[in-house]
Structure formats: C-alpha cells, structure tokens
Design brief:
Spore_III_AC/AD, single chain, Stage III sporulation protein AC, transmembrane, transmembrane helix
C-alpha cells in the first residue's frame, strides 16, 4: 500500500470534519450529513482496489 493514500485519507478526514462543524454551527445539519457521506464514499472508492487485491491474495492463498 502506498503511503500517499494514507495522507489523502487523512486530508479528506480533516476537511470533512471542519466542513461538518461549520455546517452544523450554521444550522445546516442535513448538508453536514451529506458532506460526511460524500467524504466516506470518496475514501471507499479510493481503497476499493486495495480491498479487492486483498481478497484475491486470500483466495490464492487458500487455493494452492
């Protein structure tokens, strides 16, 4: 796994948390929820190839 992906995930986490706090204090809880959901989906799309590779490695390990 690349180290850069960890920094990207951390940056998205920080930005989403700041954005959510700003939106919650301004009374926009629905937009805060959608922003956190969008951040989660973005990170999941980034790590989906790594999860797929992990399952393929586990599959090869047990089929040998």
């Amino acid at each position: 796994m690349e180290v850069g992906i960890l920094f990207k995930i951390g940056a998205v986490g920080i930005l989403v948390s700041v954005l959510c706090q700003v939106l919650k204090h301004s009374g926009r809880e629905e937009q805060a929820f959608l922003a956190s959901l969008a951040g989660l989906v973005l990170v999941l799309f980034w790590i989906l190839p790594y999860i797929s590779a992990l399952f393929e490695d586990i599959k090869q390990l047990f089929t040998i």
